[in-house]
What we know:
This protein has about 500 residues and is α/β, with parallel strands linked by helices. It folds into two domains: about 1-245 and about 450-489, Aldehyde Dehydrogenase, Chain A, domain 1 (3-Layer(aba) Sandwich), CATH 3.40.605; about 250-425, Aldehyde Dehydrogenase, Chain A, domain 2. Helix content is about 40%, strand content about 20%.
Amino acid sequence: MTIQSVNPRTNEKFGPVIPETTSIELDEIITLSQTSLQIWSTRSPSFRANCLHSIANALEENIEELVKISDLETGLGEIRLTGEIGRTAFQIREFANAIQAGDLIAPLVDSAVELPVPQGHPQFVRTLVPIGIVAVFGASNFPFAFSVLGGDTSSALAAGCSVIVKAHPAHPQTSLRTYEIANKAMVDAGAPKGTLALVHGVESGQMLLRDERVQAGAFTGSKHGGRALFDISTARKNPIPFYGELGSVNPVIVLRSSIADPKVFACAYLDSLLMGNGQFCTNPSVMFIPKDSALSAEIETQIIDRVPSPFLSQATKTLHDKNREDLRVLISPKILSGQGKEGAGFYSAPMIFLSTVEHLLANISALTIECFGPTGLILTYTSISEVIDLVMKMDGALVGSLFGDSDDADAMVAGRALAGKVGRVAWNAWPTGVAVTAGQHHGGPYPASTAPLHTSVGLSAITRFLRPVTFQSLPPVLLNQVAMNLAKS
Ligand code: NAP
């Protein structure tokens, strides 16, 4: 089996044919990854930080070439992709700085207490050690920030793990070039060969997760794919953590007190909904608005001028169009439509389905249908209790937005309901756009995450790949040698 790039704007194949990784090649890659892990995991945080800085620099030095290839493969546009590489380099440097500062990885020293039990105890030093080889599945919709050098890879490398990335077939050349650039930068900076590796093909992804030398998985993508890989990870003889970020059906609640200017609000909503052709995991998929609001009429007027952007791949368009049709048949909504596009390429007209909360309460399965693309659902409500009723029946989500005045009595109730369902509650802000910073949480109840206690964005993401080990009564000389290799040095 082979993989080849397809231009989503023209549906033309281009570039070299990339063979899928064979089982023999995969075995060699994992063997090398294991050897490099033994070296990389014991290198000082300063050494690893230096290697990460080299990767970030190399990424930016090759920005023109990478933007050109990825734009041809994803159709996301040069401005967006240039920004995404900048964000990716920033993210890598943030992890480098964090391990160098030592805050996230510092050992916790619990000194001996010379008292009778239960107060008395010997000295304990709780440390964090790299979990092992991590399998990372690159996402289709962020060819840099959630792909070969995305947050999963950079946090795992920072933690001291070796990483094997399964490239996404929608951008194979971007994946390959990014890997080549990063690998050279790492090796030039002194990292062992094989610390970062790349494989291609659906089978190799599954074999990777089944291999007992691999100790964790990280993934961003569909509920279906993520669940299949989670099941592989947990059904192993030695189950491993699988950090999956799945789905993209996020609630947005608009309170009566919020809409000062429907024109401006409608425009901002459409911008957020259609950003990246709607292919964002933080998309404002389901918006609740008051029944008597002027907003829907304004959105109906404005969407007419919106033009379609290309889907990431034929598969993404096919799935989106099928799900959109399933949703339409299930709820028979009023349809607000933007412009279509004739000819080649993977395009669908932007579309919004308008219905009521009451109707959806009777058709609750509609809210599990993910339209990953230029499709929004707007539901009108008569009371906030009705909205909360529906939100509580929704699946877990990455983010929920709440628009209103802080003295609006409904704000607290709605905010609480959202907090029960999502990983991040955004106040008077659209859900799209995820800052890479210490306070970020990008996760949430399943299916938003298969590991709801963890985040895949922000500095805390590193903890997914660090396993706690406590050393009891270890003599200082041994402690320094055995336990402190993650400490600042
Ligand atoms: P996907 O189909 O879940 O694929 C993501 C990665 O996982 C790909 O590398 C894929 O490999 C691999 N994979 C999926 N199922 C697998 C299985 N059973 N065994 C082995 N490998 C498997 O996601 P996608 O291609 O990015 O997009 C499809 C849909 O996912 C979208 O339409 C959207 O609904 C959703 N999505 C969500 C997010 C999000 O951030 N939440 C992001 C992107 C996509 P192969 O392609 O080689 O099979």
